[in-house]
Amino acid sequence: ETQGSQLHLTAEGERWAMHIVRAHRLWERYLLDEARMPLNKIHDEAHRREHLMTDEQLDEMDAALGHPTRDPHGDPIPSRDGKMPTVEITPVTAWQSEGPAKIVHIEDEPAIAFDQILAAGLRLGQTIRVIERTPQRIVLSDGETEYRLAPTVAANIGIAPLTATQTTRASAIPLADLTQDQKGEIVQLDDAVQGFTRRRFLDLGLTPGTTIYPELGNFFGDPRAYRVRGTLIALRKDQAAQIWVKPV
């Protein structure tokens, strides 16, 4: 509809637009978590599927995925009634603090910048610091690795200050890094763990405060067996890397 010289969506148009956004982001979550599609391929596939779902079908998908709140890029997933959570994001290029921050969003367009970010090894939920900023490059560090990016690429990474819990996690290590003779206390699941995967981890008893330790190795290194709550479970290295523990 028109209001003066401007065009505006009608109420039904706004509802349908939010439906498409919800469908797209749920499909991206499904394609990454369940179909194991590469992160840089899910956008186009979700775009092809987003127009095919009814509200009822999206409700079923949402429930099956464990009601995720964010898509794999960090964008919030709207509720069925069209409510969109707000997310405070600062581009890396505008971050002025020397303290740690969490990556909360990685823009997937343009694709060439997104591919460079993925190739560098940066990921959603990662804790980083900006250690150098010049007109030619932005250098980030996670304490072990330095990531050098052109400012035009780094601008596609959104970060936010750490919460108190995340500050505690900054001194933790991934479960995958525990040695065979170490025990760990679970601090937190990685923020990138969403939906069905998060629910499965919780069902296995992988909750904060729980003691866990590697019990059986694997000649090939993967998967590895861990003892938690008296039960032996197997986790792949990429799964164990998403569980943050404090050595005890």
Summarize the structure.
The chain is α+β, with helices and mostly antiparallel strands and 248 residues long. The chain is built from 8 helices and 14 strands. A 6-stranded antiparallel β-sheet has the order 3-8-4-5-6-7. The chain has a 6-stranded antiparallel β-sheet with strand order 9-14-10-11-12-13.
Rg estimate, integer Å: 20 Å
Spans of at least 5 consecutive residues whose pLDDT stays below 50 are none
The first-level CATH class of the largest domain is given as Mainly Beta
The biggest beta sheet is recorded as: 6 strands, antiparallel
Structural class: alpha+beta
Number of domains: 3
Q: Count of DSSP E strands? A: 14
- Provide the CATH architecture of the largest domain: Roll
The helical percent reads: 25-40%
Query: What is the rounded distance between the termini?
Result: 63 Å
Question: For the largest beta sheet, what order do the strands appear in spatially?
Answer: 3-8-4-5-6-7
CATH superfamily of the largest domain: Ferrous iron transport protein A (FeoA)
Report the CATH topology name of the largest domain: SH3 type barrels
